[in-house]
Amino acid sequence: MSFNNLDQLYRQVIMDHYKNPRNKGALEGDHLTVNMNNPTCGDRIELQLQVEDDKVVDAKFDGEGCSISLSSASMMTQAIKGKSVEEAVKMSGIFSDLMQGKEVDVDMDDLGDIQALQGVAKFPARIKCATLPWKAMEQGVEEEEAE
Fold first, then answer.
1. CB-based contacts of 48-51 (< 8 A; 24+ apart in sequence)
2. Mean pLDDT of 47-68
3. Interval 70-111: pLDDT, tens
4. Which of 40, 42, 49, 146 has the most CB atoms around its CB within 10 Å?
5. Average pLDDT estimate for 52-61
6. How far apart are CA 95 and CA 115, in angstroms?
7. CATH 3.90.1010.10 given to domain 3-146
8. What is the residue extent of each domain of the chain?
9. What sign for the dihedral angle of Cα 136, 139, 145, 147?
10. Residue 111 and residue 94: Cα distance in Å, rounded?
11. Phi/psi of residue 7, each to 5°?
12. Calpha distance 59→73 (Å, rounded)
């Protein structure tokens, strides 16, 4: 597949998550909630995580923002469900490295739809948009562990 076709495919994946977000909404019952915003562009995410026995059982989000931040939230909630908190935080580190254009020691296919966001690294002003939900997740698990 040529670079242009791959780039187009990634754009389609991002727009699909933006127009048809996965896990958008609110959790019922006991969960933790993290609100985070990017004052530079106005993106706002409310992330809700249900963590049981050090495992992310469920994740939902709501918010307002650009296609990058909201599709990233959709992809992230899909990716971390069922993972241990440690695995979710590790995945966040890998995503952060990817956004900074660093080499990541992971099979890109293991990232699923998240790999569609790797092109964001070329646009430094958009990196904070993509990482916003991931930073919210990190903050949430840190707060949970501190309790």
1. 49/137, 49/140, 49/141, 49/144, 51/85, 51/141, 51/144
2. 96
3. 999 999 999 999 999 999 999 999 999 999 999 888 988 888
4. 49
5. 96
6. 9
7. yes
8. 3-146
9. negative
10. 9
11. -60, -40
12. 10
CA 74 – CA 58 distance, rounded (Å): 13
Range scoring the smallest mean pLDDT among 26-35, 78-87, 104-113, 125-134: 104-113
Amino acid at 17: H
Which residue has tokens 């307002």? 64
- The residue whose two tokens read 């995580």 is 49
Specify the pTM: 0.93
**How far is C-alpha 131 from the geometric centre of its chain's CA atoms?**
7
* Cβ atoms of residues 132 and 87 within 8 Å: no
